[in-house]
Specification:
CATH class of one domain: Alpha Beta
Strand order of the largest sheet: 6-7-5-13-14-15-12-16
Distance between the termini: 62 Å
Radius of gyration: 22 Å
Number of helices: 9
Oligomer: single chain
CATH topology of one domain: FAD/NAD(P)-binding domain
CATH superfamily of one domain: FAD/NAD(P)-binding domain
């Protein structure tokens, strides 16, 4: 029976300088850097930091500095490694595994040549290995007579979910507010004198702040349609883990033989093999997250060619995640077109995780007025047709 009472909407949450929407790697490092800068920060996520459907929710990610002539990414990756190391040292479990990263290729390779030139200029260590040297160091790998290796000894693997959730725990302990809720889409007509006053969750809660950072991963175009509609390409990516103990692969580092890349078994998870080729389009909420038989067949065919003793290893686990690609693979880090106090951050494009600390620093500088948006990351520079230029 109705009581006759009127249900009132809850009062808006106030008192925040910045609200960060999205608790993936870009959002959590942005919140961390803003908190260090003395800002009152809140983080809101539909589920929680690095949840299973998030792009930051998997087990491991690669960190390397070779980006061809894309020198800014080399700088950011190198700068970020030291912060990953510090985070790893603070936690009870490792975040960064310093395994090194090996690119195997047949010269000439414009990507490797340009990477070597940039890394030398930036004083980032690397070495070139001939076929004999690779066979001696990594006997589990079959190496052709004309193949060479580009080794980054300072690179390695990052424990993705653990990293994001560890940083979130640090922020909670230091007083940063974490909220749960799905944020309703924002549009420029919601602004008052060109500024957004509040965001609203689908449950009706209103959260006010001076500035907002939207780092929503594969949902960025849904939450910021004015900025990102048709500019975000979410693709389905399959990952396979094979029952191969780390001892069976010796000193093998993280490796890349594009389009395939992978890692030796970390913490007993198994030998990881993934195809970096952009998969079919995927809905991050409803997409089928069961790996395909065709994907496993392709992974095993690769193993038979490059790691023949592992080709028949039992399949221990699979994972389907997503890349949220910009048209050319560059990140999106820019002011919202039409809302001056809103920042749009995303387009990790499958290579973004390693740059989390540097992205967070840059966004914090934008929010605090210490920097201006940079050319590679402008929304206006992102066309609506894919043409990947960053690897």
């Amino acid at each position: 029976m109705a009581s006759g009472c009127t249900t009132l909407a809850p009062p808006p949450r106030k008192g925040f300088d910045v609200v960060v929407i999205g608790a993936g790697v870009f959002g959590i490092w942005t919140a961390y850097k803003l908190h260090l800068a003395g800002r009152r920060v809140a983080v809101i996520d539909a589920v929680g930091p690095a949840h299973s459907n998030a792009s930051s929710g998997g087990e491991s990610r690669v960190t390397r500095c070779g980006y061809g002539d894309k020198e800014l990414y080399s700088e950011w990756a190198w700068r970020s490694i030291s912060e990953w190391q510090m985070l790893s040292a603070r936690t009870g479990l490792p975040i960064f595994h310093p395994l090194g990263v090996l690119w195997v290729h047949t010269p000439p390779s414009d990507l490797v040549t340009a990477s070597a030139r940039v890394l030398k200029r930036q004083n980032i260590p690397f070495s070139l290995l001939d076929a004999d040297a690779m066979r001696q160091r990594y006997p589990v790998m079959r190496v052709g007579p004309n193949e060479v290796g580009f080794l980054e000894p300072a690179g390695g693997a990052l424990m993705a979910r653990r990293a994001v959730q560890s940083l979130a725990s640090e922020l909670r302990a230091s007083g940063v507010t974490f909220l749960s809720g799905t944020v309703a889409p924002i549009r420029r007509e919601q602004g008052e004198q060109g500024a957004l006053r509040a965001i609203t969750t689908q449950s009706g809660e209103r959260i006010e702040a001076e500035q907002f950072v939207f780092a929503c991963g594969p949902w960025l175009d849904r939450v910021c349609p004015d900025a990102m509609a048709r500019r975000l390409f979410v693709t389905r990516q399959e990952v396979f883990f094979f029952s191969v103990d780390a001892g069976a692969t010796g000193a093998l580092p993280v490796w890349a033989d594009l389009p395939f890349y992978g890692l030796p078994s970390l913490e007993g998870r198994g030998f990881k093999v993934a195809n970096d080729t952009h998969g079919p389009r995927m809905d991050p909420d409803t997409g089928d997250r069961r790996a395909s038989a065709a994907g496993e067949e392709a992974a095993r065919a690769f193993l038979a060619r490059r790691f023949p003793t592992l080709a028949k290893a039992p399949l221990s686990e699979t994972r389907v995640c997503q890349y949220e690609n910009s048209a050319n693979g560059d990140f999106v880090i820019d002011r919202h077109p039409g809302l001056d106090n809103v920042w749009v951050v995303g387009g990790g494009s499958g290579h973004g995780f390693k740059h989390g600390p540097a992205v967070g620093s840059h966004v914090a500088e934008l929010v605090t007025g210490k920097a201006k948006p940079r050319e590679p990351f402008l929304i206006a520079s992102k066309p609506v047709q894919q043409d990947r230029a960053v690897q």
